[in-house]
Amino acid sequence: MGYDELAGYTPFIKPELEKEPEEADLPSANDAAQTPTEAEAVPGENAESAPPGAEERAAETEEAAQKSEVSAPEAQSPAEDAAQTQQTPVQRMDSTYEIVSKVAYLIGVPKRIFENEHEPPKLVVYERMDRDKTARIIRHLCIIRTAIEKNFKRINELMRTEFRSVLSMPELVPSDSIQQLSYDGISFYKKTSTKLCHHVIEINRLISDRINNCKSLFPIWINWSYLREIFIMPKGLTEEGTKTAADTYYQYRAYYPYQMYLNWRPSDEGNILFSDKKFTFLLYKWHKDTFTEHSKVQDAGAYVKNSIYDFINSSTRTVIVVDCENSDPYSLCATLKGLDYEVMQKISKIILFDDVHTATAWGILESYTRIPVEHNMIERVKQNKSLVDITLSARTCREFYANGVDSFLLASSDSDYWGLIQQLPDAKFLVMVEHSKCGPDIKTALDEAGIFYCYLDDFYSGTSEDIKLTALFTQMRSYIESAVHLNVNDMFNTALMNTRIDMAPAEKQQFYDKYIKQMSLSIAENGDVSINLRMK
C-alpha cells in the first residue's frame, strides 16, 4: 500500500487550547474548508481515512464560505453599489506558494495534495524537489515518522504479538518510502531496536544529521534556524521525548498541516501552509519575531498584470524608460521576471537614464532580461545638479516623434514627469512607481487623467535575489582588487634575496607547494582580514 492511500483526514478535534492574542490578518475561507466535523480523538486509535462524506462536507463548507464572502448582509440601492465599487481597491495582491510547497514536500504531504489545483502546495515545486536527493531523504523519513506516530498502537501490538518488523507492515508503514530510502542509501531499521520508539529515535537522528543539507533549497532571506526547528522533534533522541511528541500529536492531530508531524505548538491556526505570507507570519511569531519583507511572499494581482498586458498588446511599439534615480533596480528586475515572457518580448527595448550616484546594479540588469537594454550614463555639468529628468524627457519625445514609439512604460516615482505626460497627449503611458517614493498628488493626477499606474514593489521580489548577489559580488571583487594586490612569486623571490638563501629549482617548488599554496585568510570579529602563512 502506498503512502497516498495511508494519509487521510481524521475528524476534527477541538482541544481546550488558549488562543494566541495576535492573529494573522489572512484569508480564512480555505481554513474553514480544511476543518472537518468535530469528534473525540482516542490516543493510539488508527485513522487511515476520513469518514464517509467528509470530502463532500468539506466542499460544501468551502462553497458556503465563498458565498458568505460575496453576499451582502442587506439590500443596497444601485447608487450605493456604485459607490461601494469605486471604493473597493482593484489592485489586489496574490499569494505565493514557493516556501509552503517546499515545506509541504519535506514534511511528507501526499503527492495527491500537490496535484489538486485547489490546494496551496504546487506540483511544479514537488517535481523540482523530488529530483533532489537530500530533499527526498528528508521527505520519506518524515513520512515514515508520521506513519509510526499515527499508527503507533497497532504497529506496537503487531511487533509484540506477531513478531513482525516495521518493514513488513505496508498497510501501516508505507513501503514505497522505505524502498525510496533504500535506493538513496538510507536505512533507519536496526535489528537491535527492540522497541518501536527506538525506530523513531533513529529516524530523528537521521533527520537531525541531514536537515541542514536542505538549507540551500530555501532563499537566504528566510531565517533557516526557524525553519530547521520544525523538523526536529524536541528531545527526539530519548524515549521520553518521543512519547511527549506522540501524545501531543494524538491530542491535536487535526491542527497539524495535512496531519503530518512537525515540531510546533499546535493551535487552531487553520492551514498553516495556506500561503507563504501566512506561514512566514506564523513561523516568525512562534519565535517572538516579525517577518517584514512582504514583497517576498506575495505578488501583484491578476488585475495589475492583465492591465500591463493589455497596455502592451494594444500598442504598436512600446519601450520602457527608466529614471534610475527614482527607481529600484531590484524591484524592476523582479517585476520583469514576474510578467509573462511572451508579452514582454513585444517591448522593443529598455532605456536606462542613469547617474553616477545611483545603484551600480543598473549596469548588470541586461543580463537578467532578454529585452534589449540601452544604458545611458548622464554626465553632470554642475556636480549638485542631475540631468537625468530632462534627458529622459527629451529622449522620450524623440522616441515618439522620430522612432514611431506610441507607448511608454515609465518607471519613476518623480512627479516632475507629469509635465512630460501632459506635453505628449497622443502618446500612451503606463507608470510604475514605488510606495515609499510616490506622493498622493501625482497619483491623483494620474487617476483623473485615466492613466494606469502600479507599484514596482508590489511584485514578488523573491526572484531578485540573483541580481542582488551578483551586484554584491561585483562590488566586493572590485573593492578587493583596489585594496589588495599581492603577488606570491614576487613575495617569495624578495624573501630569498633578502635572506641570502639559495635554493635549487626543485627545492623552491617543494617549498612553494608546501607553504605558499597553503596560505589562508582569517577574519577577525571586527572584520579585519589577515593572511596566514604557517610553517607547519
Description:
The protein is α/β, with parallel strands linked by helices and 536 residues long. Among the domains are: 301-467, Rossmann fold; 486-532. The chain has helices spanning 3-6, 29-34, 54-70, 78-87, 98-107, 111-115, 123-130, 133-150, 152-161, 175-183, 196-210, 224-229, 239-251, 276-286, 302-313, 329-338, 341-344, 388-402, 418-423, 440-448, 465-483, 488-499, 505-516; strands spanning 93-95, 298-300, 318-323, 347-354, 373-377, 407-411, 428-433, 453-455, 520-523, 529-532. Strand 9 and strand 10 form a beta hairpin. Helix 5 crosses helix 7, helix 8 packs antiparallel against helix 10 and helix 8 (133-150) runs antiparallel to helix 11 (196-210). It is flat, with a radius of gyration of 30 Å. Mean pLDDT is 83; it is low at 1-91.
User: Could you say what the CATH architecture of the domain at 301-467 is?
Assistant: 3-Layer(aba) Sandwich
Roughly what fraction of the amino acids lie in strands?
Answer: 5-15%
From the spread of the alpha carbons, the general shape counts as: flat
CATH homologous superfamily identity of the domain at 301-467:
5'-nuclease
Rounded to an integer, what's the Rg over CA atoms?
30 Å
Largest sheet: 6 strands, parallel
The helix tally amounts to 23
Write the layout of secondary structure elements.
Elements: H1 3-6, H2 29-34, H3 54-70, H4 78-87, E1 93-95, H5 98-107, H6 111-115, H7 123-130, H8 133-150, H9 152-161, H10 175-183, H11 196-210, H12 224-229, H13 239-251, H14 276-286, E2 298-300, H15 302-313, E3 318-323, H16 329-338, H17 341-344, E4 347-354, E5 373-377, H18 388-402, E6 407-411, H19 418-423, E7 428-433, H20 440-448, E8 453-455, H21 465-483, H22 488-499, H23 505-516, E9 520-523, E10 529-532
Parallel strand pairs: 3-4, 3-6, 4-5, 6-7, 7-8
Antiparallel strand pairs: 1-2, 9-10
Helix pairs in contact: 5-7, 8-10, 8-11
